């Protein structure tokens, strides 16, 4: 699953935090991995004592690893991965940006797990929204470089703030295989009209894609959650 959770603030309820709604979405789908974006940790707006990634892990029976993007409101704001399998290693990488664009700093979050006796890596990211495409191109190229050294099957998911066919997604497609060709729209939740939340993997022969869909859940966040079903092939 890839899910931009809007810091667990339902768009229809200003300043209200509803982690239970996000956990319900995850539990209904029962994914093995969740790439989360827009995650608050110990912020004033979401609760000084609340670590949203860890709270969601507890509510879903999963394990969590958080990667800070920026300091925010007395705490941290960033991305995370939830894993059904115990996390063997977790890493956070800061992604590059062009200083003149003054974009919000972005990150890549990775976890390594054992899956059916094999090591694999799950990654979450959230690319810059700034126009033009300069920062997204810098960031997706950096991600491709980092994950090229993984030495194991990789799944990358996140909010790319770019549509299929755009320069950034063309770079993504040169290094990864997306789980969809005609990808379902993911934003806005009411009358969605574009796709910016994606799942991809490498190497191309490591997985078989069984399904890809956007879940029509319109309350919990301003993005629809995306579910891709992949079969990890035997060696």
From TrEMBL:
GO terms for molecular function: endonuclease activity. Keywords: Endonuclease, Hydrolase, Nuclease. Residues 1-223 form the Endonuclease/exonuclease/phosphatase domain. Signal peptide: none annotated. It holds the Pfam family Exo_endo_phos. InterPro entries: Endo/exonu/phosph_ase_sf, Endo/exonuclease/phosphatase, GPI-anchor_lipid_remodeler. One of its GO terms (biological process) is GPI anchor biosynthetic process. Transmembrane segments: none annotated. GO terms for cellular component: membrane. This is Endonuclease. It comes from Chitinophaga agrisoli. The lineage of its organism: Bacteria, Pseudomonadati, Bacteroidota, Chitinophagia, Chitinophagales.
């Amino acid at each position: 699953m890839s899910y931009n959770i809007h810091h667990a603030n339902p768009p229809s309820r200003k300043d209200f935090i509803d982690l239970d709604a996000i956990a319900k979405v995850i539990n209904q789908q029962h994914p093995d991995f969740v790439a989360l974006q827009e995650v608050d940790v110990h912020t004033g707006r979401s609760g000084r004592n609340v670590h949203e990634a860890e709270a969601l892990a507890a509510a879903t029976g999963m394990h969590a690893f958080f990667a800070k993007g920026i300091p925010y409101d007395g705490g941290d704001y960033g991305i995370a991965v939830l894993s059904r399998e115990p996390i063997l290693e977790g890493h956070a990488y800061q992604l590059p940006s062009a200083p003149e664009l003054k974009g919000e700093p972005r990150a890549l979050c990775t976890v390594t797990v054992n899956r059916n006796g094999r090591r694999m890596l799950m990654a979450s990211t959230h690319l810059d929204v700034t126009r033009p495409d300069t920062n997204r191109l810098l960031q997706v190229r950096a991600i491709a470089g980092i994950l090229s050294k993984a030495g194991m099957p990789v799944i990358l998911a996140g909010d790319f703030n770019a549509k299929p066919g755009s320069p950034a997604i063309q770079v993504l497609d040169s290094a990864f295989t997306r789980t969809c060709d005609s990808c379902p729209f993911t934003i806005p939740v009411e009358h969605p009209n574009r796709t910016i939340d994606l799942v991809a993997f490498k190497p191309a022969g490591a997985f078989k894609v069984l399904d890809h869909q956007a879940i029509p859940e319109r309350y919990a966040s301003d993005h629809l959650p995306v579910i891709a079903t992949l079969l990890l092939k035997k060696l």
